[in-house]
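Consider the tokenized backbone below.
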């Protein structure tokens, strides 16, 4: 019980890094936003957010673009239409951090204007204008690694040394951010499970997640319900809870500071077991 409490935080998202942060994924079904079911869909999204907060989420992640393998492009206008009204509604009703999962400068700009706490970019601010928009704000950023682009990234991913390649990518992106005036203390790193990686690559990254801690930044891990769980266990998407929890626990033991999950309550339970044990280590 004599654990020293450090007060280290991710400055602009004010995360307590002594405790694993749970990022709850908000499922929005884009198609129903453009038809008559808009109101119902909006309200059910807010209910989902409320439930995630009750269950112990620290951050809510909203995404308006599907980045699943093979996904098609969405326009900036459509993405803004899906995401920004929800951001506004969440910020006016709840005291919770919100991250916006986007790679578009226009969406980032709107997200910043309406009080988002973090930009979660699977393209690590590589798209045109993104570094500049983010540099004008004080928002936190998650830089995720992806080989290739969602449409084709799973076709034949190859690495010389996956850990070194990802580390090199992170170093380059951190340099670029700093060069544009985005301070290192605003950044979070994510190796991007499932993004241009085979099953074996994903498990190697999970096993060696601690390597990314060498850059001195918080690490985010998103394994929840992914193919790396389903393909290993031969489970459909709705049968992946146990596998997802096991992988999340490994990620935390390997130093993950933030886990991105669909099942908030179950993930918080797992974290609480880990911290009960950690007191005696
Ligand atoms: C991730 C993400 C992830 C971050 C998605 C899915 C695919 N953002 N957005 N990390 N995955 N930072 O949830 O299956 O792993 S969308």
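A designed sequence for it:
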């Amino acid at each position: 019980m004599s654990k020293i409490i450090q007060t280290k935080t991710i400055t602009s998202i004010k995360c307590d890094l002594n405790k694993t942060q749970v990022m709850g994924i908000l499922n929005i079904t884009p198609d129903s936003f453009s038809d008559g079911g808009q109101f119902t869909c909006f309200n059910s999204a807010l209910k989902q957010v409320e439930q995630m907060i009750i269950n112990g989420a620290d951050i809510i992640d909203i995404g308006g673009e599907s980045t699943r393998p093979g996904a098609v492009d969405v326009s900036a206008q459509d993405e803004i239409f899906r995401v920004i009204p929800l951001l506004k509604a969440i910020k006016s009703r709840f005291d919770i951090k919100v991250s916006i999962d986007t790679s578009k400068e226009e969406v980032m700009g709107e997200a910043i204007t309406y009080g988002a706490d973090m930009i979660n970019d699977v393209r690590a601010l590589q798209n045109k204008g993104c570094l500049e928009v983010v540099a004008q704000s004080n928002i936190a950023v998650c830089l995720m690694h992806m080989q290739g682009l969602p449409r084709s990234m799973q076709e034949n991913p190859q690495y010389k040394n996956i850990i070194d390649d990802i580390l090199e990518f992170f170093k380059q992106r951190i340099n670029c951010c700093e060069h544009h005036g985005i301070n290192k203390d605003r950044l979070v790193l994510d190796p991007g499970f499932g993004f241009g990686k085979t099953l074996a690559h994903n498990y190697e990254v999970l096993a060696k997640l601690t390597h990314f801690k060498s850059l001195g930044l918080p690490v985010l891990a998103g394994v929840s319900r992914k193919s790396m769980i389903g393909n290993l266990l031969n489970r459909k998407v709705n049968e992946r809870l146990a596998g997802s929890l096991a992988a999340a626990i490994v990620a935390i033991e390997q130093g993950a500071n933030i886990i991105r999950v669909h099942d908030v309550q179950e993930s918080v339970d797992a974290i609480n077991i880990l911290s009960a044990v950690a007191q005696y280590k």
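The chain has nine helices and ten strands.
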